[in-house]
From TrEMBL:
The keyword Nucleotide-binding applies. The keyword Kinase does not apply. This is 5'-nucleotidase SurE. Nucleotidase that shows phosphatase activity on nucleoside 5'-monophosphates. Its main location: cytoplasm. It catalyses: a ribonucleoside 5'-phosphate + H2O = a ribonucleoside + phosphate. One of its GO terms (molecular function) is 3'-nucleotidase activity.
């Protein structure tokens, strides 16, 4: 396969290094990633200035590597539009430092980069692990990522993203294909002192409040399973289209 690799932690992150190291041993790869940390960038793109793309060298990596002074979605767009001589078969975004579970996917630059690939009709996978993963954990996650990619590729539709989360110890549990859970944060902003009486300063922090619904990624990751959730960028709530239509058009029919 020809694989485009990206992330939101930056081109020098350990996760992208071990993912690329594993994949390039078996497949043709190109790396296009942000020049620095871009976590929680969501699906934002750079509009009001040019973005700069640089060819860089990652020690121990033989694949072509580019850094982009933009967001994760920028990386995928510029790779597809300008850097790739041939269409890639698959996009893999990661390995992200920190799980992307439940509603986290709405903020995640890692997941958004994969979704951008799906918008271009390229099958895509986002991969995340727990925070502060050591080398052995990342190497294992990279091997699992490769296996999931190879097992899914022939069946994965070109507008679908697989959101994959790999726990620290999954060796005895295996994979659960599941829905997104509900993850919210309590007391999300901590106020800090400031010398200016006309301003207030807040640091995003807080405590995770998970709703552990069975069959959700939040539930299964805590049980030690690898979680895989198929995502799609169409956010339409098809279940209530007729209902909303009745609210807004019933007066017109009278």
């Amino acid at each position: 396969m020809r694989i485009l690799i990206t992330n939101d932690d930056g081109v020098n992150a350990k996760g992208i290094y071990f993912l690329t190291k594993e994949l390039e041993a078996h497949h043709e790869c190109i790396v296009v990633a942000p020049d620095k940390q871009r976590s929680a960038a969501g699906h934002s793109i750079t509009l009001h200035r040019p973005i700069t793309v640089k060819k860089v060298k990652l020690e121990g990596i033989k694949s072509m590597v580019y850094s982009v002074d933009g967001k994760p979605a920028d990386c995928v767009k510029v790779a597809i539009e300008k850097l790739l001589n041939e269409k890639v078969d698959l996009i893999i975004s990661g390995i992200n430092n920190g799980y992307n579970l439940g509603t986290d996917v709405l903020y995640s630059g890692t997941v958004s980069a994969a979704v951008e690939g799906a918008i271009y009709k390229i099958p895509s996978i986002a991969v995340s692990v727990d925070f502060d993963a050591d080398e052995e954990y990342l190497k294992r996650a990279a091997k699992i990522s490769k296996e999931i990619a190879e097992r899914s590729f022939n069946n994965l539709k070109d507008d679908v993203v697989l959101n994959v989360n790999i726990p620290k110890d999954e060796t005895k549990k295996g994979i659960r294909v599941c829905i997104l859970g509900n993850r919210v944060y309590k007391n999300a902003y901590i106020e800090e002192e400031t010398d200016n009486e006309y301003e207030r300063r807040f640091q995003l922090a807080g405590t995770v409040m998970d709703n552990d619904d069975e069959n959700s990624d939040v539930f299964y990751i805590k049980k030690g399973y690898i979680t895989v959730t198929p995502l799609h960028y169409d956010l339409t709530n098809f279940n209530i289209i007729a209902q909303v239509n009745s609210w807004l058009t019933e007066e017109e029919s009278k």
